[in-house]
Amino acid sequence: MPKRGTKKGKTAEDPEYRPLTDAEWNRMLKYGAFRVSDDVKNEYRFSRGDTVTILPHGIAPGTDMVQSDYWVAEILEIRGITYKGPEISTDVWANVRWWYSAKDVTGVIQSFDPTKCSPYERMHSDHTDRVSSQAFNEVVKMKKLCDDDLEQPYISPNEFYSRYDLNRRGKRLEPTPAGSSCTCGAPYAYHDSDTVMHFCPRPSCRRWYHQTCLLDAGSLFDVPAPKVQKSSGKSKRGRPSKAATVSPLLLLTSPDTSATLRLPSARTPCPAKRRRMSTRGSASVSPQKGKVIVTPEDLLEDSDREEGGSAGALDRLPSKLVLLASQPIVRGTLFTTGGVSGNVRPVVRARRLVHEILELRSDEEDNMSAEYNNDSAGVEAPDDWEERVMGLQPEVQLNECVVKIQGQRSIPVFACPECGSAI
Ligand SMILES: [Zn+2]
Ligand SMILES: [Zn+2]
């Protein structure tokens, strides 16, 4: 954390504060950026559009501060004026829009509970101010946390993020904190020491549930946790050793369809012969509610069950890809490597890729086409599968997206309270 020798933040509660008048502001010239130097001549550049931290009023420059205690704002406009006297001096100010902290929000919405927000959370406000360039600290990133975003970017525990906009006049946050979170209505509190939430990515759900609420409701999927053994690593890519056994339960909870998907049989000749997709053991669909109720047996063909549940089609894919696709989608403090946002994006991408490669179809589609043509199903993952799943410059590694929860030796497979899918 750089410590700049700034003057105090020029804010209304600062005794040294003298607000810039409209006339002074209007006389100033517009700039796209400005630079500020610290005591040891490090230069910091601030541009229009940047999100920045600002030294709070009453804090002496150089005070040891954690980053989350700074004020945060977005630079809307920069203006400055040069005074020519015996010494040339410049005065630079910026018009900023404040990102409110949870504590700031309680000054607007008294009923708001700030304990549900972590120190790095901010609300986008409609409150603007002119701030002297002397109070600026550094440029930071502000990430968006969106509950139903399947492409949610990774947010580390030490990055600023936002999920609500603050409407000061209307005294409300948008979206409302209790909106669509869990069955209990309590919003995600990342920093709560025991938080773990599971996500159902089905298009009709896209909702997070507290693990404790799922346990209380007895929403357990009636199977043991996915048994995953990593391959020895000696096998060639795309040909993992026989030890790589993964439960397909979670993998088959699709982000793109609410229908039931099933894996081709382990005995499917590869890659040639056409085969019929068995309709035995299909998941039961309740037409009244449109809910799909899946039981474990439904997800594997008889031949696979006889072999102890090995999903043969998956053995032809890179074991790391299958491992990732089969993870529960989880976020919360106890899943430490998931940061604030959890593993939703990599797991969703991995599932989509596996479904695409195996050309998994729903029962409805299968009944229409009557015959499942495995010839056309690609059985090899593309060479760049890891890049496609993790991104070109991943902020987390693939193994960090594999869920390990502090204090839990195995992670239960839950049934989504809404659709019954494995989550
Ligand atoms: Zn809950
Ligand atoms: Zn669901």
From TrEMBL:
GO molecular function: chromatin binding
Domain of life per record: Eukaryota
Region (Disordered): 225-244, 261-289
Stretches assigned to the BAH domain: 44-177
InterPro entries reported for this sequence: BAH_dom, Znf_FYVE_PHD
Chain ranges passing through the membrane: none
Protein name per the record: BAH domain-containing protein
Species: Coprinellus micaceus (Glistening ink-cap mushroom)
